[in-house]
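Re: [help] complex structure
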Amino acid sequence: MLFSNAAAVDDAWDQYEVGYTYGLYGTPTTLELAARICELEKGFRTFITPGGQGAIALINLAFLKAGEHMLVPESIYTPNRKFAVEVLRRFGVEVTFYPPTIGAEIESLFRKNTRLVWCESPGSITMEVQDVPAISDAAHRVGALVVLDNTWSAGIYFDAFAHGVDVTMQALTKYVGGHSDILLGSITVRDEAAYKRLGSTHQLVGCAASPDDCSLALRGMKTLAVRLKALEEAAFALARWLTQRPEIELVLHPALPSCPGHEFWKRDFTGSTGLFSIVFQRQFTKPQVLRFVDALDLFEIGYSWAGVASLAVAYDFHSTQGRPNYGHRIVRLNIGLEDVNDLKADLAQALESMK
Ligand SMILES: Cc1ncc(COP(=O)(O)O)c(C=O)c1O
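Output below.
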């Protein structure tokens, strides 16, 4: 970016107001992506960050200060939890973890200094759908802000601002990118006050997203609707099929009654996506569960969900406080764009191999 004359030089971050000033605050490509995410999420403005975790960190740095208190669900994405425990506590922020299914009873956890309430719905791996409107009502009564990790719904199937949320973030790395080959995040705000607070912090933290990655995200958005439709259908069909299998105790898919908080999904969401978890019956040992994952042929093993390839990851919650008692029996599945009958056959042969 070059200025047209000496008097036009300006280091302002708010490029919606003043036009393009400096790449750190966004290039025209970054701002185009931000505008489109903002339109999808029906927010006031959106910031693009170099990853979803960067968005989480920036939100916390922008809104919290020493001596303030934050509430975080036990089901939150693990690096979000670790940022709270390992960084924010070091800077004097008080952090309390709450059960994700708490609903309106969250009221009892508020302190005079509670500033921020995080939600993630459904939660990472254990998939609890939260009563976000009840949590938001309680938070707003004490003047706290509600922040939602809206990655699972792609910012589309849950209209966060209509359900009381003040700030949303997404890992655009996931459904918006759509091909497991970029890292990007977004933060979308409801109002100007939050926009100003975030913008001035974003400028100083210096976390600029690559415009090349933004152009890949813009390309991903062109196929987002058809990908989501295909992923929803395939994932729901496989989830329903898995409920019939004798090896499985629970299918944690928000659109099934067996998922904690299913009633809130039914009330508040307009669809589901491709990520859900299964819990094996109690007799299965950890080596058997690992054997199931290793026996899968079409499913790869990896974290970067929401792309076109199906993935499986086994988790072990034996030593994790605040999570349901699924122990080593939980496996998270990401459904991709392979043929659904091929995926079913793959799951069936891997289940057989556990015996
Ligand atoms: C729910 C959720 N939020 C945030 C992130 C972080 O995103 P990124 O990998 O882009 O930093 C992830 C990544 O796995 C995630 O699953």
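The two ends are 63 Å apart (CA to CA).
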